[in-house]
# Entry
Amino acid sequence: MNMDSFRTALLRYLPSEYLEKISDVIIGVAGCGGIGSNCAHNLVRCGFKRFLLVDYDIVESSNLNRQFFFYDQTGSPKVEMLKNNLLMINPDLDIKAVVNRVTPDNMREIFKDCRVIIEGFDDPVAKREIVEGFIGSKKLIVAVSGVAGSGNSDLIVTKMVNENFYVVGDFKSEVSETLHPYSPYISIAAAKQADIVLNYFLNLCETLG
# Structure
């Protein structure tokens, strides 16, 4: 595929000056599982081009029911496989893949160049730590809370905490032994995250002219 063909297709929906501004935004994806991987491919399809993917885990067969990976990628680092999959959508992306665990000690250095942070962790402690680490910054943070189970997907809503911090979810259905992660529910939440980011920067483009 000609690398310009994807951009040409996007210009059917976005003014060129908007697309230029969007494509310059660096998006950090903290956790590349069900939420992070699905949010990332939605953002690529919206015209975002610069990504920092951070996760320490590998692709397992149990991930394939809800994460943007494929059977022949099992056993490989999630960040590397997600990078490959995103490049299959748009080969002109600028992606840095980091195999590392995000901690309070390293997160500021890891995400220092990012304008956006997509929170995609499973661990509630890690979720809290990254929000607390950047809540006072000017970065756009889009987190999730409650994305397990099936049915009642209309309960997945967006809450704006402040102009730079949003949370998506039903705020109660955390993964447990009786409540499992399924693709539809997780994909809806991830798509809502991507929509927040897209709308945020489209509005910014309109404001700045």
About this structure: The radius of gyration is 16 Å. The chain has a mean pLDDT of 95.
